[in-house]
Specification:
The protein is of the alpha+beta class and about 260 residues long. The protein is built from seven helices and six strands. The protein folds into three domains: about 80 residues, no CATH class; about 70 residues, no CATH class; about 80 residues, SH3 type barrels (Roll). A hairpin with a 2-residue loop joins strand 3 and strand 4. Helix 1 runs antiparallel to helix 4. It is elongated.
């Protein structure tokens, strides 16, 4: 039997003792008076301490058992959290769920959490081997999802042609064709870009944007709609019109063509 398992058993026993001694105290309080009984039952721990001091001879045993059990319960709880790496895991979970953190940073934090679980003292060699298999499976799934997402985004690559200074600006031969369907975009000397906050993007639906992802990928497209926190863009290609989506947490820069 490992030390961690033994500590867990005593932790459960202390928890049971807390409950049992509290019920004992409530019974003693009701024997004293109905008022004391309800005060101890509903306003503990303050009334429990006051009642025990005022009626020490009757409440001494259950009160001391209650205090000792609480002390042992809390001490073993901290021991188990530290021994299992629980405090570090809670901190890591908070970091992963925190807003404003990039996908790359989330991946690093998750790897650190998995390392902590793998290196915890509570796992025996057989359990560690099973955990390694599960971790490898998870990593393969994540890689597969990442590749699928990259393929989806690369269906609509940005084609940018830099025009040397002095050459005339190219005209759109089809006057009715929207800017989002023109495959050639001009340099900033001929086309200006204005930064747009993500929260104000709904005011620019129908206009053409340049979107820069946190992974460095840059794409142009016409904003067609906003679904919750996801922007939907439309872009022309040789195969016809294509759509791509980018979430708010994936975008580092959003600029509209003027």
């Amino acid at each position: 039997m490992t030390v961690t398992l033994l500590a867990f058993i005593f932790w459960i026993l202390f928890g049971t003792a807390i409950f049992t001694s509290f019920i004992w105290l409530v019974i003693v309080a009701f024997r004293e008076s109905v008022l004391w009984g309800f005060l101890v039952l509903f306003l503990s721990p303050f009334t429990t301490v006051i009642f025990a001091i005022k009626n020490w001879s009757e409440a001494k045993k259950p009160f001391l058992i209650h205090i000792i059990s609480i002390s042992g319960f809390v001490s073993l709880l901290f021991y188990l959290l530290i021994g299992l790496g629980g405090l570090q895991m809670l901190e890591g979970i908070y970091e992963v769920t925190r807003k404003g953190i990039s996908q790359e940073e989330k991946g690093k934090k998750i790897d650190q959490l998995l390392d902590q679980i793998q290196n915890t003292r509570s796992l025996n060699p057989e359990e560690k081997e099973k955990f390694l298999k599960i971790r490898q499976t998870l990593e393969e799934i994540i890689k597969s999802l990442t590749k699928t997402k990259e393929k989806k985004l690369r269906k609509t690559p940005t084609e940018i042609v830099e025009i040397p200074p002095g050459q005339p600006k190219q005209e759109n031969k089809n006057k009715n064709q929207p800017l989002a369907q023109i495959k050639t975009f001009f340099s900033e000397e001929y086309a200006t870009l204005e930064e747009v906050p993500l929260t104000k993007a709904y005011k620019k639906i129908g206009e053409t944007f340049r979107v820069k992802g946190k992974d460095g990928l840059i794409m142009d497209g016409q904003l067609t709609q906003i679904k919750k926190r996801i922007l939907v863009f439309k872009k022309a290609s040789d195969q016809g019109s294509l759509e791509f989506e980018m979430g708010f947490d994936e975008i580092s820069s959003l600029q509209v063509y003027q």
